[in-house]
Amino acid sequence: MRPDYKEALRLNNSRLVLRAIAEEGGIARFSTISKKTGLKGSVLRYHLKRLEDLGVIEMEVKGVYRLRYKCPLCFIFESNVPYAYLGLLGRKEGRRESETEVAMSLLRKEGIKPILNYVFTSIEALNEWRDIKVPVQWILCKNDEIIDIDLMKSKVRPQLEALLRDYVVIVDCTSATKPATIAFYDLAQEYLTPLIYIYEERRKLIWLISRERIKRELELS
């Protein structure tokens, strides 16, 4: 079951609980949540159980609760949680600088410095970009995967979910094939992760799914 953020945030007290956990980096003790929210005893337990049932939080150990995924809540509440980058890389086709390097440069200008970079690519593209200058964890895609939206989503989803447990994930749908781009876009919308697109020629970063847009979708703005 995917988290139902909109329903979770519908009640003010549940919203206070989620904000409290997010502000603690996505994990907090019962006593800390109570202190930050002013909710006590059975009232707080009710909202924690409600949020568990909606798939938004889970009990780490007794008395300690964590967000199931740190994004989008740690992103919209601007918590001190590290960033990870999840992108695509296409063939070189005369480019001097990879889309990944351009994206990293532009994100740094916005104060975002991912500590992990995961990039889905083909073996052909990887062979052409052996000299890439940023540290990257490569995930290779077969040709039939990178041209099929559903296959690509099936390949990307487990990695995205794993990263979301501990990081705010910036998804970049700039490169590779159109089906791969659509797959990344669909997953970012499904999990409400920030999504970027890079105009390489103009070295311009566009937020397709921004903090403000996520807030609007969750009726927080």
Annotate the secondary structure layout.
Elements: H1 5-8, H2 12-23, E1 27-29, H3 30-37, H4 41-53, E2 57-61, E3 64-67, H5 73-76, E4 83-89, H6 99-109, E5 116-122, H7 123-128, E6 137-141, H8 143-146, H9 149-164, E7 168-172, H10 178-191, E8 195-199, E9 204-209, H11 211-217
Describe this structure in words.
- By secondary structure, the protein is an alpha/beta fold.
- The protein is built from eleven helices and nine strands.
- 45% of the residues lie in helices and 21% in strands.
- A six-stranded mixed beta sheet has the order 6-5-4-7-8-9. The chain has a three-stranded antiparallel beta sheet with strand order 1-3-2.
- The chain is elongated and about 65 Å long.
- It starts with a helix and ends with a helix.
Relevant terms:
221 residues; 45% helix; alpha/beta; three-stranded antiparallel beta sheet; six-stranded mixed beta sheet
Mean pLDDT: 93
Share of helix, binned: 40-55%
What is the terminal-to-terminal distance? 26 Å
Number of helices: 11
Low-confidence stretches: none
Brief characterization of the structure:
The chain is an alpha/beta fold. The chain has helices at residues 5-8, 12-23, 30-37, 41-53, 73-76, 99-109, 123-128, 143-146, 149-164, 178-191, 211-217; strands at residues 27-29, 57-61, 64-67, 83-89, 116-122, 137-141, 168-172, 195-199, 204-209.
